[in-house]
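Summary: Need help interpreting a holo structure output

Steps to reproduce:
1. Submit the protein chain below together with the SMILES for flavin-adenine dinucleotide.
2. Request a joint structure prediction with the ligand placed.
3. Inspect the structure token block that comes back.

Expected: a single structure record containing both the chain and the bound molecule.
Actual: see attached output.

Input attached:
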Amino acid sequence: MTSAVVVGSGPNGLAAAATLAIGGLDVTVLEAAPTIGGGTRTTELTIPGLLHDECSGFHPLGVDTPLSRHVDLGARGLRWCWPEVQYTSPLDENGRGGTAVRSCRSTAAGLGDDEASWSRLFGRLDTGFADITEDFLRPLLRMPRHPFKLAQFGVPAALPTRWIARSFDTPEARTLWAGVAAHAFRPFGAAFSSAIGVALATAAHTYGWPVAEGGSRAISDALAAEVRDRGGKIEVGITVTSLDQIGPADVVMLDTSPAAALTILGDRVPARVARAYRRFRYGPGAFKVDFAVHEGVPWLHEPSRRAGTVHVGGSYEEVASAEAAINDGRMPERPFVLVGQQYLTDPQRSEGRLHPVYSYAHVPAGYTGDATGAIITQIERFAPGFSDRVEATHVRTTTELSRYNANYVGGDIVSGSNDLRQLLFRPRLAIDPYATGVDGIYLCSAATPPGAGAHGMCGFNAARAALTAMGRTQSSRH
Ligand SMILES: Cc1cc2nc3c(=O)[nH]c(=O)nc-3n(C[C@H](O)[C@H](O)[C@H](O)COP(=O)(O)OP(=O)(O)OC[C@H]3O[C@@H](n4cnc5c(N)ncnc54)[C@H](O)[C@@H]3O)c2cc1C
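--- attached output ---
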């Protein structure tokens, strides 16, 4: 039987393993950490009974993908829960802010004078977004299946974030846009810095920003169940540093950073690939604080009390300045903070009136300071009385994040800077970006297309590339 070894059990490693197992290969997954899941683990980080997502929390791009159509994750226990409000951005003015819901029309209607501008930008993309995602969830150097729709998406995506901001007049629409655009971790003046924001804002209208019932670990648990049910094995506590540890295998998938792939492959990697992996650039970092909070966060902006995600940064200008600073290697006094309230739609994560609240600040790469105070001050600014409600905290610095998971180099949670080159061609310019140049060995982590997120599409695409190279017909679950 043809055999495959997958190094790393993040959503991409497990998606690759499941796809190879469905393709008839004998699969073994080797994971460095004591538990599977990579960026999709859920743990009682603060107080027993409170379920905190350690990394990914929201999954707008995981709901309907070629992977989710190939592997029946619902049959493996994955259920999505949608918050009533998808995301918000509160402003300083008493109770004001921007609010995004799962309808472009209703979101636009809440933006006053910017109703038409929001509808013009996102309404056109909302119709047929499934076709657009099918193309951008694949490597870009392929013939698009829906070229006209992809081009429609490409026009706003190519713009700097601040150009799109100019089409909005109200502080509400401007900060709503800033919050969603900040997910790219890019300076707002950079070309293509809008791409991720445009995708996530449109996805909020089309798919919502759902959480996984019981925690994001349900994603990796479902993928792992598929692997095991098809005879695959998963071993934990094994850090792979060399191919010699793996033994003979027809296919090897590396759910690792390009830097770790270089170490594992050693001098087998062709020089041009080694150069590209060495040149691979990592982005700014994240500083994560999880809270156990009595009665939740007392936001002044009422819709934020019902939102899954709250983007905390103030006005558009403040968020733009904070993102510029972290890209410049400076820690802003008022960082951009993302707050997650997954428990609102998935109450089993709470214990009575004590709720798990998730947050991380955008900080410079490898930031060595303590951002806990800055995060609390930012939340308190829009939710006075918040700190009095905090019962316990759990902090993970950039250094701890990269120790926790080697793929988050310097605390970079998007597995490589989303600069122009890497947004379009990561980890290198190649027809098959998953190929490492060593026969049968592929990179399948979020450092490959389509990039970060717990959608598993990097692993799925890499596994399909391997199956195609072996001349295997790609059977589906049916
Ligand atoms: C704080 C935070 C918040 C996030 N929020 C979201 C979100 O809301 N939505 C979303 O979609 N995404 C989010 N992400 C990003 C998402 O988690 C990642 O993009 C995704 O997990 C990448 O999957 P992966 O399989 O490529 O790598 P990972 O999930 O990082 O998994 C890699 C695995 O490989 C293992 N490994 C690495 N090297 C080796 C080795 N040499 N030997 C053995 N094992 C190895 C690691 O231990 C790890 O388990 C977030 C990430 C973080 C950290």
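--- end attachment ---

Reviewer comment: The longest strand covers residues 285-294. DSSP finds 18 helices and 16 strands in the chain.
Status: needs-info
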